[in-house]
Structures are given as structure tokens and as C-alpha cells.
Amino acid sequence: MKNIMLTLSLLCAGTVVIAEDAQQETMQVTPGQEFEITLDSNPSTGYGWRAKISDDSLLQELDKTYKTTVQAAQTPGAGGKDVFTFKALKNGTASITISYSRPWEGVEPAKVREYTITIGDAKEEKSCVNVDAAAYDTELAKALKIDEKKLKSAKKTAQRNMSKKTKK
Length: 168
Hints:
By secondary structure, the chain is of the alpha+beta class. The protein contains three helices and nine strands. The chain has helices at residues 70-73, 133-144, 148-167; strands spanning 6-10, 16-20, 26-29, 34-41, 48-53, 59-67, 80-88, 92-101, 111-119. A five-stranded mixed beta sheet has the order 1-2-4-7-6, with no helix packed on it. A four-stranded mixed beta sheet has the order 3-9-8-5, with no helix packed on it. Helix 2 (133-144) crosses helix 3 (148-167). The model is unreliable at 1-14 and 124-131 (pLDDT under 50).
């Protein structure tokens, strides 16, 4: 069985990112804040993720994109990630149900992820946590089961890619 891992990280810039599969399926955001939910996907199988929001007056789906790695792009049938971007509109609680299915089959989805989003004003003392960057990298490398050199290399590549995107 494929292990889909979920992590939640709150960035000081105000973006919440849920990467992979969630242990934490409840989250707090503030009005106007954008957040992403990223899930493993393989559209070559015919399956795809579809999101349903319980209250459109509280949450808005801004975007859904499919991303793949260079290696996966060169391998026929390899999977990637579906990235959903949402925006919190006003205070309240709403749910997002994301289903992985082949819509033409008319059967229950193969997978369903449910997230409860509470939208409210943030408490200032909890808005940003200071962490030691080196210690964070060490723990992240352990969690991803890679060595720190690979992690540093991946971070540099990501920074270059982000830098290219902001220049466009």
C-alpha cells in the first residue's frame, strides 16, 4: 500500500502548505490567507483529484495544477502531484473534500481526503515560530530519509527555480 504522508507547515509569510497526505486534517488560517494542499497523483491511470468546498462564501479554490519531477516526466506512466490552491475569504469553518476517482466510472472514489478549515483572526504570539534553520534541516532530512547534502542541494535547486519564476 502506498504511504501518503501529510505534513502541515505554516510559513511566516502567511502561506499554509499541506504537502502529501495529512496527519493533521484540521487547520487554522486567517481571512485573506492562501493555502495549498498537495496530493500524489497519476493522471495516466485516468484517476484525478477533485475538490468540493462545503461553503463557497468562506473558501475559494484559486487553482489546481499538476506538477512532476524531471525524472518522472521522462518515465512513461510515472506520477506527480496535484496542487490545489485555496483562499480563506472570511471568518467561519468550512470543509474541503478532495476525491481521487475516474469520474466516468460512477463508483465510489478510490481515495477521499477531508480537511476542516477554521478561518479566524490569528493570535499574534502564534503567527510565526522562530526555529534554528540548521536544526530544522537536520530534522527534515531525517523525516525525508535523505542525507543533509541532498537536502541542501534540493533547497538550492528550489531557490533557483523560484528565483526564475519571480523574474518572469
